[in-house]
Amino acid sequence: MVASRRGSGSITLPTGQTMTIHTRTHEEEDLPHATKKTMADHLRKYESLFTLTPQRMRMIVEAFKDSLELGLQKPKQVVPMIPTFVFGWPTGKESGDFLALDLGGTNLRVCLVTLQGEGKFEMTQTKYRLTEEQKQDEGQKLFDFCAECLKTFVDTNFTDEDGTSLLKPGELLPLGFTFSYPCYQSRIDHGELIRWTKGFGAKNTEGRDVAEMFRQSIEKYKIPVVMTAIINDTTGTLIASHYVNPKTKIAVIFGTGCNAAYMEDVKNIDKIKELKINEQDQMAINCEWGAFDSFEHEHLPRTKYDMIVDETSNKPGEQAFEKLISGRYLGEILRLVICELIDEGVLFLGQETYKLETPYVFETAFLSLMESDPTDELLMIIGIFTHFFAVETTLAERQFFRALAMLIGRRAARLSACGIAAIVGKMDYLDEGCLVGADGSLYNKYPGFADRVHEGLIDIFGEKGRNIKTVHAEDGSGVGSAIIAGQERRGPISACISRFMEISVTLG
Ligand code: GLC
């Protein structure tokens, strides 16, 4: 069989099976593998399916701009363009201690942020991984869990060695709640969940005020905090990035989900005209752009794999843009292509492939690892396929998988560029240029993601696209939330918000 090996060993899989791993210099001859030519032919097919031409990108940008405008004009549009009631940019002078609780796509975090003014801060945090059950269970139980974690954090960080509280009697710590799901807001400390995204489905929560639900949990656990703001991670990122670098005009998250926020002139937000907010003011808008092209599917180039991802998700039809881009879905798209080639008898003939057949087993992190494999023989890819899926691969197959990861990752980045370009175009930021604060696992960890976004911007705008630069954002879910919680405690914004509290309108 194998003529030469450069190393071998074995590992025990969770199932108890023992797997032999080896690195090879010669290909295995005893399994029927697809030829190099077959793999190259298949790759050409996927190239044409997953490649976005500059012309197509510009068409997407135009449709995207229309959706953003529509969302500002009328309530309850597909891209909801949510007014956040965060008014204007931070001064950079904000200071003090603030708590932030961040319920994102994968983790729950509790942070203590000390803002030191002049764009500086310090942070202590604790992270908890959410289980799949918690994401689907009763909503109130999810908020109880958040409150339990918050209580442990406050008890740990605000008591001395004798267990005596460091807080003055009656003192309440200001808390910003980063809740990264689409919520209609009619005030900054209120948020009605429109719909769960990113695979969450906790019951009895959609349509309800999640800030109020969380407040009930805080009361239940008697935690000495006052929640002054509920914010989206993109809004937090916008504010935090601007606190650190005032050239920031837009914030984007490319993580488990994908979304953007930017600062809009109040006079352009037609749907809240009746609130009679000062037309000179500015307000951050949480675009919820992951919903672009949902339901109608008119503008985005969806492949049949994207359609399967959509139809088998807990929210078919929804978050159409997000499903082509975000970390929750990219691994699944690649897995579906592999499964198709298994079914067609092209890949892994004669091998047990059941491990590849479970939805979502192929993590997006594997695509990152495959793309960054530095070895000629693609040893990292051998590792992934043998360790996790117990299948043998040839070099031609591994090259194919890597190229496929590249196509899917590149399409995600280029579509992301279309979203950014739509905001840039709408706001006319191209000539003067701007920074885009960016965060999320895909942006931070996927090799070359940022470069591909920048290439995409040049494809859309030509050389001027270079004026728009994404930069790794400061932790918006923590720091941004703290800055906003701080602004609220200081008062000027609260005073202005109380004016609107009496006006009961449903905003969208
Ligand atoms: C999803 C959420 C959105 C969030 C984004 C990034 O798109 O709906 O609120 O900002 O994920 O976490």
UniProtKB/TrEMBL annotation:
Enzyme class: transferase
Occurrences of domain Hexokinase C-terminal (ranges): 249-485
This enzyme's EC code(s): 2.7.1.-
Species in which this protein is naturally found: Lentinula boryana
The organism's place on the tree of life at top rank: Eukaryota
One of the Pfam families matching this protein, by short name: Hexokinase_2
Keywords annotated in UniProt: ATP-binding, Glycolysis, Kinase, Nucleotide-binding, Transferase
PROSITE patterns noted in UniProt: HEXOKINASE_1, HEXOKINASE_2
Gene3D superfamilies, per the entry: 3.30.420.40, 3.40.367.20
InterPro entries according to UniProt: ATPase_NBD (IPR043129), Hexokinase (IPR001312), Hexokinase_BS (IPR019807), Hexokinase_C (IPR022673), Hexokinase_N (IPR022672)
Protein family (similarity comment): Belongs to the hexokinase family.
Biased composition (Polar residues): 7-22
Protein name: Phosphotransferase
Nucleotide-binding among keywords: yes
Residue intervals of the Hexokinase N-terminal domain: 43-243
Spans annotated as Disordered: 1-32
